[in-house]
Write a structure and sequence with these properties.
Fructose-1,6-Bisphosphatase, Chain A, domain 1; 2 domains; five-stranded mixed β-sheet; 32% helix; globular; binds 2,5-anhydro-1,6-di-O-phosphono-D-mannitol; binds magnesium ion
């Protein structure tokens, strides 16, 4: 079938048989994420408008109390997944603990857990800059029909069965992988449907963009400092261009399309790094590898790290394979000197 004008719904059905486990449950789960994405997109898009219309009181145009959008996004994703009875557990950046969904019911056969960052980069909302939602999906490791346990969530990234993000940008896109490449779908706002717009996205091997919060430069480890100086040095295709939105989804998305590297290293301010392993770095690492890019903590593959905590932080270096390998070589060199 021609993929032109294919909708996300059609794509999910067509590709269902290529999933490792073909009960249709994963397809229904991705469909639920698609629905929640549309609801959150609607709210994010009118963020400025609600401020204007709601300025006199505390309620929005529907008469509901105004909420912070990251709290709203969290509620919408959780509500959709719970209402559709599609997962047995959810962990979210906005929730201290994981949520168990009817999983102690012996008849409860849902086998997937979802980890989400409902609205990443949310400090950008007030200034009309792109934000995103990140999700990561695993099969539970504990028996069906028993309550989900922390070990269902603390799995290595290599165990992910699907991962993706929604970017609420100049257009809204849903980009995801089930381990068979990365596909991007753009929302037609008039019709309310996602269409396949970016089939089989690949990171260029090389790029000329580096993305890092250079305000933290003096606090970075020496290897990272040396790599940043290398990016700025005049030689060959360098100096590279610096582009940093401060919204992981947006920085990643741009770099995946144009070629580039994103770095959030450790620093004296953030000794473990800032980004969260389970619902920020692992899903992005899965996407990066599926798009022929690379993701590491500066030395080790992100998806090989065995998590010990739900909200664990890690340093993150991700992007075009040659650039990530170059950055790793600077980290190695500074450790051995
Ligand atoms: P958040 O989950 O609190 O929004 O933080 C994650 C965000 C990433 O999207 C972004 O890349 C990074 O934090 C920016 O951090 P900084 O402002 O320190 O550069
Ligand atoms: Mg976040």
């Amino acid at each position: 079938m021609s993929r032109k004008h294919q909708t996300l719904g059609e794509f999910i059905i067509e590709n269902q048989s290529s999933f490792k486990y073909t009960s249709g449950e994963l397809s229904r789960l991705i469909n639920s994420i698609r629905l929640a994405a549309k609801v959150v997109n609607y709210e994010v898009n009118k963020a400025g408008l609600v401020d204007v219309l709601g300025a006199a009181g505390e309620s929005n145009i529907q008469g509901e109390e105004q909420q912070k959008l990251d709290v709203y996004a969290n509620e919408k994703f959780i509500q959709t997944l719970v209402n559709r009875n599609i997962v047995c557990g959810i962990a979210s950046e906005e929730e201290e603990d994981f949520i168990s969904i009817n999983s102690s019911d012996k008849n409860h056969q849902n086998k997937y857990v979802v980890l989400i960052d409902p609205l990443d980069g949310s400090s950008n909302i007030d200034v009309n800059v792109s934000v995103g939602t990140i999700f990561s999906i695993y099969r539970r490791v504990t028996p069906l029909g028993s309550p989900v346990q922390i070990e269902d969530f603390l799995q290595k990234g290599i165990e992910q069965v699907a991962a993706g993000y929604i970017i609420y940008g100049t257009s809204t896109m849903l980009v995801y992988t089930t381990g068979d490449g990365v596909n991007g779908f753009t929302l037609s706002p008039a019709i309310g449907t996602f269409y396949l717009s970016h089939p089989q996205i690949k990171f260029p091997r090389e790029g000329i963009i580096y993305s890092v919060n250079e305000g933290n430069y003096v606090h970075f480890p020496q290897g990272i400092k040396n790599y940043i100086k290398y990016c700025q040095m005049e030689e060959g295709n360098r100096p590279y261009t610096s582009r940093y939105i401060g919204s992981l989804v947006s920085d990643f998305h741009r770099n995946m399309i144009k070629g580039g590297i994103y770095l959030y290293p450790t620093s004296t301010k953030n000794p473990q790094g800032k980004l969260r392993l389970l619902y920020e770095c692992n899903p992005m690492a899965f996407l990066a590898e599926q798009a022929e890019g690379k993701a590491s903590d500066g030395s080790c593959r992100i998806m090989d790290i065995l998590p010990t905590q739900l909200h664990q932080r890690v340093p993150f270096v991700c992007g075009s394979i040659s650039m990530v390998e170059k950055a790793e070589s600077f980290v190695r060199a500074s450790k051995s000197s």
